[in-house]
Amino acid sequence: MKERKRTKAQFREDFKRGLGRSYIELKESKSREKFKDVVLWACLRNTCYDMQCEGGRGIYLYRAICLYEDKCYFEDAIIRKYRQKNLDSWLFSQLCELLYLFAEDGSVKAKEILYEKYNTLLALLSAPVNRTVVDNFEWLCVWLTSLDGFSAFKSIVKQVGAVIIKESYPLNMDWFYSNAKNKFGEKRIDAYLQKSAIKLDHVEAFLSSVAYPRMYNKQDAVPPTAEDMIRAAKKKQGLALALCFSKVATEDDLLTLAKCAMEETDLEIQLQLLWVFRKVRFPLDERLIFELAECADPSIRDVAFEMMEHLPSPMIHDYAIKRINQKKELGNALSLLSVCYRSEDENVLLEGIQSLTVSYDSGEWHGVYMNVEKLIENRSVKINSSVFVYMYRQTLCSYCRHSLLKQMSKRKALSQAMLEECLYDSYEDTRRFAMRKLRMKA
């Protein structure tokens, strides 16, 4: 196969996104060494947009590492990073996973480093507990039980139980406990804990900490009124009540609140009052929302555009188009257009999306992409596949990329080449999706 003519910068952009085509490019490259520092750069950073949704990139990164003969170049650098203090929990988890994969492949050094870190963090579990330390310790325990199985689980339970007894502090290890049940089976885990707790105080302490009864007194809540919402807003507590109020408000309540909001001169209080209309239709003249959308306060402008989404009139549609063409409030205007989209808006939508800056620092593009994904769920809406492909290549969120791929598949817009790329994507569900689709085509 002819080698792809792409720059190192282009490779880095694809690789940090977790795109499968960057792995294929690396595998096929005759000058793989020039990308070595990019692979290492990604190993030592959390390049996920939201790891909580996406999961880790460990397997994706490790596959790339295994394309190089000198794996120690990566392992040693990862160990140096891992030994640093005060690592972000998400990066810590990625480094744990990478070292676990090295250890699983037979690296004694990687395994020793994991247990070295375990002992360090175990010693730091003292009251008052630093939550980051506990989070990192819990992540590490999850990987150690993957590496050394049920024996590691039993050892960790006893040692954590000893800390709980010594410190008289109920450490929250619910995630570790839940993961172990998924990994080894709920019956096996609970049978071990309950049987061992009779004889071993340390196990009993651990079991008590994860099985602590969480009892709540349930009382019938009185539905909030417009007056309650107004009082809460004036105390700057309206945002917490807004969602609940929007679900129970009568038409008269909403009308009262809308009039109060438009008369309010304190912008912070006004924002709290308007927050309700992010979820329900604004009952006054929609031209008032245009006034809000021109406000100097960006938070008021943002909520105004969300309010317009409940009023997809011709006037609202034309306003969204106007703002996109002006490149003003671009993210808000594109999200709004997704609600009142017409077939003739195809070029405006694509050009607008292409004008957005996609970065880790800004969430504007992410909101727009999610709204466009909702739009394409409606298969009766005609949109050129170039919109999908562009978003697929540009998004930093592999979870969203997976959602987009499923919609592309329903629209018959997934090429054979793209499916083959997806076999190496950083997101596990995408890899499975591609494998299933290719198997069906075979």
How many individual β-strands? 0
Mean of pLDDT: 91
Please give the radius of gyration in angstroms. Answer: 27 Å
Distance between the termini: 22 Å
Fraction of helical residues = 55-70%
Q: Spell the H/E element sequence.
A: HHHHHHHHHHHHHHHHHHHHHHHHHH
Question: Class by helix and strand content?
Answer: mainly alpha
**In terms of per-residue confidence, which ranges show pLDDT below 50 for 5 or more consecutive residues?**
213-220
Main sheet characteristics? none
Oligomer: single chain
Percentage of β-strand residues: under 5%
- Count every helix, treating DSSP H or I runs of 4 or more residues as helices: 26
The gross shape turns out to be globular
Describe the structure.
The chain contains 26 helices and no strands. 69% of the residues lie in helices and 0% in strands. The model is unreliable at 213-220 (pLDDT under 50). By secondary structure, it is mostly helical. The chain is globular and about 70 Å long. The two termini are 22 Å apart. Helix 18 (298-308) runs parallel beside helix 20.
